[in-house]
Amino acid sequence: MHNIKLIALDLDGTLLGSDKQLSKEDEAALKAAAAKGIEIVPATGRFYRGMPKIIRELPYVNYVISVNGAQVYDVSKNKTVCSSEIPWERAVSVMERLDEIDVIYDCYQDGWGWMTKRLYDKAEEYAANIHSLKMIKELRSPVSELKAYLRERALGVQKIQVFFKDMELRAEILKSLPKEFPDLVVTTSIVNNIEINSREATKGVALKKLAQYLNISAPQTMAFGDDTNDITMLRQAGIGVAMGNAYDEVKKEADYVTDDCNSGGVAHAIKHFLEIK
Known about the structure:
Layout: E1 6-9, H1 24-35, E2 39-42, H2 53-56, E3 63-66, E4 71-74, E5 79-83, H3 88-98, E6 103-109, E7 112-116, H4 117-120, H5 123-126, H6 130-139, E8 140-143, H7 146-153, E9 159-164, H8 167-180, E10 184-187, E11 193-198, H9 203-213, E12 221-225, H10 231-236, E13 239-242, H11 248-251, E14 256-257, H12 265-274
Parallel strand pairs: 1-2, 1-12, 7-8, 12-13, 13-14
Antiparallel strand pairs: 3-4, 4-5, 6-7, 6-9, 9-11, 10-11
């Protein structure tokens, strides 16, 4: 049996099914792991308040890796353990580049989402599905012009998120943007988006820092994921688990590939490694 003390889990496409719900099977496995004293840590591209209520209300969730690792949050103490943000000036430069192509974009700052109203009003054209559209509409506040808003506030940016209609353009920008902005990390979390974070804001770095904070060694950690923003976390963990629905490049980085997010994949891997019934 593996001596796991912390399990980090991506949400969309991993712990949450395609209906954005937590299955009873996965919830029971998490509860059993928590009863053994294992820390259960959601690790998401969302900010804390943007996480589904069903996850935020799990009684055994004490820590959250949010915004792709830009923040590690202590739930019980309502404090940030560590953070890594994009300087606002750099964020504006990225947005000026994005203005040249056919996309909509927003940013997370200070634990909330912000978006130029003109782009917010076009969200239906760019959202991948109804769940994506719901998140944009409910978790972003429209402002008259986002770049001007960032200049006015002069605060660090936790993440920039970009939505595409044209998948060929997305593939092109996924390749070019890291070369244009080598100080930033460019990943994806859903089929038609790109996410941009500070170089230090990765789920892997956040997992490492949280484990050190809790005096847990790397081999005592386990992580689950399905998309490219999860790769650093799977590499960092003692056991990296890719979902059955994960991209091939994510599966290649995993120690174990479990079932998909709609088939109890999280529960199956927890039972496999931790001998939980």
